[in-house]
Design goal:
The chain is an alpha/beta fold and 387 residues long. It contains 15 helices and 13 strands. The chain has a six-stranded mixed β-sheet with strand order 4-5-13-10-11-12, sandwiched between helices. Strands 8-7-6-9 form a four-stranded parallel β-sheet, with helices on both faces. The termini are far apart. The mean pLDDT is 97. The structure holds pyridoxal-5'-phosphate and zinc ion.
């Protein structure tokens, strides 16, 4: 195991590895896992990857689980990076790609984070896992917890897509539906967790989900023969995937796999819930809570993200930006991507297309750029959005 310690992403305070942690005990911000990368790279080499399993555990040396016996897996990750040549021709970007995360277990990229979080919870001895969720994280937690023989307690807004609710019930979770938003669900978990003995696996309130999500960054690099794209467009709620990829790029640079060049990281949000877009425009490092959050792209209905500063730092350090698109635009994009490329996107993933068009219009993306859109989930879970 190559984990050396956990480090607060804001104040830098060191926390011990192989202990259950939530937020920094000093400042209450997220913790990030740190590795002995010199040691990791002895066996984790680009050449060694040619022989490895085709899921995210191929990057074993930079994942946090100590004992292989604790790995809980359905074969998540190593999803296709599809060259979207037809769509690329329409928008005028020949090197356009879609990372199709709808092909993961439980049909979204949330499987990555829950694979590592549940494996670590199992390793560190927690038996009851609780989460507030917009839907897909809940479905993933329910499945991984069941597979690990652990209990899961899930809190979702009452108007979460029905598929997410049914899948949690059918995979053995304790499901509570709440009037309100994911932030209200998170507050409920926070109020009850101590008395109930729950371990809180909320986005970035535990340190291991981001470790699973960071494999998105390793995969994109590997799939593009270790040359990062020029632009990454990512539908952002809590931001774990974006924060994870940004961390992965640093780790890869430290291992000598890539240079210092980074993609321009672009956050996409729905106009009805765009706290990061607002904070980016205002030049702020921390985002205000977005009032009256509303969008059919349920995963983007996150009015306040605890990792806001990590998202905003990555956008600025990379020369990227943040873009809002309307629900009409992202729903129309679902059909357009589906009809041109055959990928039935989650509305969150589809939002990347109108965002790309706005960036082209503003001359922030050029024809020669290699661009990756993240389709973070499958459209099959969102029947209500299309009726
Ligand atoms: C399909 C989909 N896309 C994007 C997101 C946002 O992800 P993140 O919280 O990592 O920013 C979610 C979160 O629920 C989601 O379900
Ligand atoms: Zn701290």
């Amino acid at each position: 195991m190559n984990v050396t310690h956990l480090e607060c992403a804001l104040c830098g305070l060191r926390h011990e590895a192989q202990r259950l942690h939530n937020l920094c005990r000093e400042c209450g911000k997220p913790l990030l896992v740190r590795y002995d990368l010199e040691r990791a790279k002895q066996s984790l080499t680009k050449e060694s990857l040619l022989q490895r399993r085709s899921d995210l555990w191929r990057y074993r040396e930079v994942l946090p689980v100590g004992d292989d016996a604790n790995i809980v897996s359905f074969g998540e990750g190593w999803t296709p990076l599809l060259h979207a040549s037809r769509l690329g021709e329409i928008v005028g970007i020949p090197e356009l790609y879609i990372k199709d995360e709808g092909q993961n277990p439980t049909q979204s990229f949330k499987a990555r984070g829950m694979a590592t979080a549940v494996s670590m919870a199992k390793e560190l001895g927690s038996t009851k896992l609780a989460v507030p969720s917009a839907g897909n994280a809940a479905g993933a937690l329910a499945a991984y917890a069941a597979r690990a023989g652990l209990e899961s307690f899930i809190f979702m807004p009452r108007d979460t897509p029905r598929a997410n609710i049914v899948e949690c019930e059918q995979t053995g979770a304790h499901v509570t539906l709440m009037d309100g938003l994911i932030t209200d669900c998170g507050a409920e978990v926070g109020r009850r967790k101590e008395a109930e003995g729950w371990f809180d696996v909320s986005t970035l309130k535990e340190p291991y989900r981001v470790e699973g999500k960071k494999t998105l960054g390793y995969e994109v690099a590997e799939q593009l023969s270790w040359e990062l794209p020029d632009v990454i467009i990512y539908p952002t709620g809590g931001g774990t995937g974006l924060i994870g990829m940004w961390k992965a790029f640093d780790e890869m640079e430290q291992m000598g796999w890539i240079g210092s060049k980074r993609p321009r990281m672009v956050t996409v949000q729905a106009a009805g819930c765009a706290p990061i877009v607002q904070a980016f425009a205002d030049g702020k490092r921390f985002a205000d809570e977005f009032p009256n959050a509303a969008t059919t792209a349920s995963g983007l209905r996150v009015p306040k993200a605890i990792g806001d500063f990590l998202i905003l730092d990555a956008l600025r350090d990379s020369g990227g930006t943040a873009v809002a698109v309307t629900d009409d635009e992202l729903i129309a994009a679902t059909r357009e991507i589906g009809a041109t490329e055959g990928v039935f996107c989650a509305p969150e993933g589809a939002a990347c297309l109108p965002a790309l068009r706005k960036l082209i219009e503003a001359e922030q993306v050029r024809q020669s750029d290699r661009v990756v859109l993240f389709n973070t989930g499958s459209g099959v879970k969102y029947m209500e959005s299309f009726s």
